[in-house]
What does this fold into?
Amino acid sequence: MTKVDARGRSCPEPVLMTKKALASGENTYEVLVDNRTAVENVTRFAKHQGYTVSVTESEEEFTLSLTK
Amino acid sequence: MKEKRNLIIAGLIIGLISVGLVKAGNPANMGFCIACFLRDIAGGVGLHRAAIVQYVRPEIIGLVLGAFAVSLVKKEFMPRGGSSPVLRFVLGFIVMVGALMFLGCPLRMVLRIAGGDLNAVVGLVGFAAGIAVGVFFLNQGFSLKRTYSLPKVEGMAFPALNVGLLLLAVFGTGLLLFSESGPGSQHAPLAIALIAGLVVGALAQRTRLCMVGGIRDLLLFKDWTLLSGFLAILVAAAVGNMLLGGFNLGFANQPVAHTDGLWNFLGMATAGFGSVLLGGCPLRQLILAGEGNSDSAVAVLGMIVGAAFCHNFGLASSGTGSTANGHIAVVLALVVLVVIAVTNTAKAAQNAKVSSSQGK
It folds into this structure.
C-alpha cells in the first residue's frame, strides 16, 4: 500500500500528490492530511477515480483510506 | 453532490446580497470587491492619500469575523503558518497590482459581468489564462512548502485586528480618512455592510468558495464543483440587476471600469496567476485568515500594502483608463511571478532528487 503524506500542504497540493500516487494503479492507498478542506478535496477526487474513501481523525490529523 | 448543491445555494445568496449592497449604497457592480475594499481601508487609515477611495469597509471585517466565528463553532479554527510568508506577502502585493489595473478582484469581475460590463469578460479571459499558467507550474511540482501548527494566539491576531478596526470605524471616525466624493464615499450603512460581510464570510467558510479554485480545479481535475458557486453568483446577480434596473450591456460607460482591453486582460492574468500560486483568490485568503491561517493573513497584508503603493505611485487605473506607471508595474509583476513560480518549482524537483538519492 502506498502512503501519501500531504500534512502541512494546502490545496490543491494534497490532491495533486494523490493524483500522482494513484497513477501507479494500486487498489489501496493511505493519504495523510491536516485540514478539512484537503479531506474534502482528496475525497472528492478519489471518489471520481472510483475509490471508496474512509476517514479517521486524530489530533488535528486525518487519515484517508482509499480502496477500490 | 451535496457540496455542489451547497455551493450553488451559497452562490445564489451571495449574488443577491451583492446586488442588495449596491442598492443600499455601495458603488455600482461593487456589492463586494475584496481588492477595492482593501484599497479603501488602506486609504481610510491613511496609507495612501487618494481622496476618492478612502473608507473602512465593514464588509471586509464581517468576512473575516464571520469565517472566524463559524470556524470556531465547527472546530475548524486551526492556527497554521510558515509556508514561505515573505513570498506570500509579495504575491498578495502583486495580485493587488493586477486587480487594480483591471479595477476589481475576481469576485467583482463576476459582479461586473452580471451588470453587463463586457470589459469584465475580457478580464475573465485574462484571468483564466493566468490561472492556466499557474496550473502548468502546479503540475510541474510548484509548492510554497508546508505549513506548521502555531499557537492559538497567532491565529487570533488577525481576527483581533479586524475587531480593532471595527471599533475604530464605530468610535474613532475622527482619526480615519473617509472620502467625501467618488467610490469611497458610496457605501451601505455600516450595520448592513457588516452583517452582509458576516453572512457571506460564514457561507464562504462552509463551502470553501473560491473564484480561482473553481477554474483551477476545472483545468487540473475536470472538476466543476467549486466553479458552480462562481456561476451561481453570476446568475443571481445578473437576475437581481435586471430586476432592479442595474443591468447595462456594453463596453462603454461602465461604472468604476475602463475600456482598455489589453490591460484588463493582463491585469486579471496577473491576479489569476498570482492567486493560483497563493492557493486561492483574495476572498478565500480573507476567509482562511479568519480560520487562523497566518500565511493567508500575510497575503492580505501584502494586498493592503500593495494597494497603498498602487495609489501612491499612480499604478491603479480609474474610470478614465490605465496609467503608464501601471503598465510597467503589471509587466514587472508578471516577471516576478514567473521567477517565483520557476524557482519554487525547480527546488521541488531538486529536493525530490536529494531525498530519493538518500533512500528516504
Summary: The first helix of chain B runs from residue 2 to 23. Residues 2-353 of chain B form one domain. The first strand of chain B starts at residue 80 and ends at 81.
